[in-house]
Amino acid sequence: MTTDHQFSNPNKPRFSFELHSTEGRARAGTFHTPHGPLQTPVFAPVGTAATVKAVTPAQLRELDASLVLANTYHLYLRPGDEIVAEMGGLHEFMCWDRPMLTDSGGFQVFSLGDTNKIDNDGVTFKSHVDGSIHRFTPERSVRIQENLGADIIMAFDECPEPYDRKTVETAVTRTHSWLERCVEAKTRPDQALFGIAQGGVHHDLRKESAAFITSLDLPGYAIGGLAVGETKPEMHEVLELMDGLLPQGKPRYLMGVGTPLDLIEGISRGVDIFDCVLPTRMARNHTVMLWYGGRLNLKNAPFARDRQPIDETCACYTCSNFTRAYLRHLINAREMLSATLLSIHNLHTLVHLTKAIREAIIAQQFSKFLEQYFETAEERQAREKT
RNA sequence: GCGAUAGUAGCUCAAUCGGCAGAGCGCCGCACUGUGGAUGCGGUGGUUGAGGGUUCAAGUCCCUUCUAUCGCC
Predict the structure, then answer these.
(1) Quick check: A105 pLDDT over 60?
(2) Which has the closest alpha carbon to A94: A44, A50, A160?
(3) What is d(CA A235, CA A185) in angstroms, rounded to the nearest whole number?
(4) pLDDT tens digits, one per residue of A337-363
(5) What is the side-by-side strand order in the sheet with A36-40?
């Protein structure tokens, strides 16, 4: 069986990144993928098991999502990457024709796998689904991600807790050697492999990691090991440091972040791509994010007779049609529509916030945007408390 | 009408020989950042149906009464 990529010209770049505009450290660009352009900065909804939980692809398109994540660990265990490949790959399997990214499974092996044993060659772990024993190596992760077929695939890395220096040092060393093996193992030219920097909160380790991963000429670079317990100022310092170390001409992906404020802080420090489970997980736990920061737990009693939409300035499907009182009723009655409507709102908020920022950067109005944002945020949060 | 059984938090129920009236759920909140619709955490909650008696001490024993369910005239 032959596939398209085997006939492609290896010299023709499948992936390229153009920077349209910068303001301060903030950047607006376009990352070209086989499934269309990714306009950055961008927020990517997470669809771990080949579905953004509670949201249909049609709804994702309506709220302007472009990049969607899926997960190697979860799809390998269920239904199995071979089945996904047999069914035509992730895009066809889940009916998403825009860009996709798969995480390597490194993070899940550490956060979900029960009794995992890590060595320099890879990780042996116990499935959270049925307790069976499995082993991931860089080669295995790349092989699985090639079966899944996302546009962007991630290096297999070790994500340690950020403080203990010795643990972080070991993780950095392993992550680097595993990256080399991922590059070596990779065969599909229609997939872009992103390297991941580790180093916790230790600046010298971050520098070492950035130097190593950028020594390999990769189409994009990710900043891993953040939002895992460190403080916000520590995260911001690492981002500023990385901005100076990663090449301007490649996209930067901050893994696992975040909230509206996190996106603003990240973009202000040179980040182009974000993903986070928070908007959809919070939606399933009855909480909505607000454009200007803060959150509302719609399960709370004061919303029982509230005629307002979640956010009066939000143009999402949920805010255009439903009152807080109705949403609270759905939550209280344990109706599954609540997860859908809240997820749509939270995703819309993050996707459109990054879009608005992109437009501001292109118009060289980002600093003005920030000024107005923080001013309004203060007013809004004060009003919402009364 | 007679008899049996029962009555404790919003609900379902615990409470040893008479010895600090509790749990689960609900309710009210909080947390969640490369996803377990999972989960964790905190809080509210009582005239033990009512009235009386015995006792140092009563949800528990005694009397009266009310209510519910079941059975029998």
Answers:
(1) yes
(2) A50
(3) 32
(4) 999 999 999 999 999 999 999 999 999
(5) A16-23, A26-33, A36-40
Element (H, E) at A134: strand A133-136
What ipTM was predicted for this assembly? 0.85
Q: In whole angstroms, what is the distance from residue A357 CA to residue A239 CA?
A: 18
Nucleotide nearest to A277 (CA to C1'): B35
Per-residue model confidence as pLDDT tens digits over A43-82: 999 999 999 999 999 999 999 999 999 999 999 999 999 9
Closest by alpha carbon to A230, among A150, A183, A160?
A160
Using DSSP's 3-state secondary structure scheme, residue A136 falls into strand
The C1' atom of B66 and the CA atom of A266 lie apart, in whole Å, by 70
For every residue of A193-225, DSSP letters joined together read: EEEEE--TT-HHHHHHHHHHHHHS--SEEEE-S
Q: Which nucleotide is nearest to A336 (CA to C1')?
A: B37
Check if residue A301 sits with its Cβ under 7 angstroms from strand B. yes
pLDDT digits (tens, 9 = 90+) for A162-188: 999 999 999 999 999 999 999 999 999
Using the structure, give the distance in angstroms from the CA atom of A363 to the C1' atom of B67, rounded to a whole number. Answer: 77
Interface residues 84-113 of A with strand B (CB < 7 Å): 103-104, 106-108, 111-112
Residue A59 beta carbon within 7 A of nucleic strand B? no
